[in-house]
Each structure stands twice: as C-alpha cells, then as structure tokens.
Specification:
260 residues; mainly alpha; Cytochrome Bc1 Complex, Chain D, domain 2; 2 domains; three-stranded mixed β-sheet; two-stranded antiparallel sheet; globular
C-alpha cells in the first residue's frame, strides 16, 4: 500500500513538472519570433512622433529619471512624481505626458477599449519602454511617504476578498506551487524570480494575438475574480503595481514577454 502511494505521488510530481516544462519549452521556441517586437517598433515611433493638438512628441516626458530618459525607467515604476503629486505607474504617467505635452484628451484615452484607438498606442508605448529596460533588475523607490502608503494599499487590495466567488489576488498568487490547469501561478507576495510575475509584463498574448499592458493584465484579474472593472490608471491598480514591484526587487525584467 505504501509503495502504491509513493508511486502515485512520484507520478503526480513528474506530471506536474512535465506540464510546466512543456509550457516553458513552448515559450522558448516562440521567443526569437516574439510579435512584441512589432509593438516595440510602433511604440518607439509613437514616442518620437508629433501628435495631438500641440503637435508635439513625447520625448520630453519624464518617466522618473529625467525628461526623455527611457532606459531603466520601467524597472523603477510605479513611483512618486512631484509634478502631479501622485504615485504613478507607466500607463498613468504616459497619460499625463500625452495630455500635458501633446494636448490629447484624457477621457478619450481612458474610456477607449483595450487594444483600440489610443489604448492600442498606450500598449505599444508600454512595450517599447519596458523593452528598453530588459535585463535590468527591479528596484522601485520607497523613500517617499506616498510610495510606502501605496505599498500598504496594494497589499490590502491584494488580499481583499469579495465578489460572487469570494476571490482575491492572493487566492491564486500567495503560495508556492499553485497551478490553474497547466499554468503555474507565481507567488507574488515575494520575489518569484527573474522574468516571472511582475517581471514578465507587459507581454504578447498568443491566445488573443494582442499586446497586454500591466493595466490590462490587472483588469483581467479583476474580471476573473468577478469584481467590477477598475478605472484605467486608478489608484488601486497603481497600488497593486507598487506592491508587486517592490516584492520583485532584484528580479530581472524580460518584458515584453510572450504568454500563452
């Protein structure tokens, strides 16, 4: 009887490892031809293109390291910005720059569906900006009181349970070794490692054929929890980014990655 139990446990462990290895191999095969590169090229062009009522580029946009500095910015976001008096992630900061520098309408951007109009442009910009920090290690600042407050807010949001299924972010992402179907679920309450969890987004989703920013990824998590969708660039999504980003300190970014 004991031998049967041990054999069954060994088979289960082997099956789980084989499934995870299979997905990893699948992603590896697609890496060289990651369609995210097309979005990166579009994003770089949008950064340099004169657009909007002010006919201006985004090249003076300050992502936290000074006007126009892109390399290294992604792995230090979200962070506090003195000019807005807010903690902002990449998308909310880009929104500020698109409005102030180019004169675009904030409502036209935030109310557009993901993957369409200015939202599609936002995702392309996120792809290029994150790619400029590929291989760098996350090191989100926590010197400002608001950055620390947003970490605690993000932590509360991460563990908050509700909705029709009484789910939370932590229901899937607070323990080691969890899976849903064949998908490994990283433990986001700590540093899950290089290129895992927060360090893999934005990413190209093969299943939908689209580029997903972190805002879109979080929006889909709320959908799966049966929660109401949060507003684009809302404090709760930014706070969740702070919580996951600080926890990912030292992890190398592989964004934009490729996902199933």
């Amino acid at each position: 009887m004991a031998a049967t139990v041990l054999m069954a446990a060994a088979f289960s462990a082997h099956a789980q490892k084989s499934s995870a290895d299979g997905i990893a191999e699948y992603r590896k095969m697609l890496e060289d031809g990651n369609p995210a590169e097309l979005f990166e090229a579009k994003g770089e062009n949008l950064w340099k293109q004169k657009r909007g009522p002010k006919n201006a580029t985004l090249q003076q946009c300050d992502l936290g390291l000074g006007p126009g500095v892109v390399k290294g910015a992604w792995v230090q976001l979200p962070r506090w910005f003195a000019d807005t008096g807010r903690v902002q992630d990449l998308e909310s900061r880009l929104l500020t720059c698109m409005v102030t520098l180019q004169g675009l309408n904030a409502d036209d951007i935030t109310k557009a569906p993901f993957g369409r109009g200015e939202q599609a442009n936002m995702e392309a910009l996120a792809a290029w900006i994150s790619a400029e920090s590929k291989g760098m290690k996350f090191n989100l600042p926590q010197a400002h009181a608001e950055e620390r407050r947003f970490y605690e807010l993000g932590k509360r949001a991460f563990f908050f349970r509700g909705g029709t299924h009484d789910f939370s972010c932590a229901a899937c992402h607070s323990e080691d070794g969890k899976r849903i179907r064949l998908q490994d679920l990283p433990n986001l309450t700590k540093n899950p490692g290089n290129g895992i969890g927060f360090a893999a987004w934005p990413a190209y989703r093969v299943s939908s054929g689209e580029m997903w920013s972190m805002q879109r990824r979080l929006n889909d998590c709320f959908r799966q929890q049966r929660f109401p969708y949060p507003g684009f660039a809302s404090d709760v999504t930014v706070a969740l980014g702070v919580y996951m980003g600080v926890n990912a300190k030292g992890a190398e970014s592989i964004a934009p990655a490729i996902k199933r």
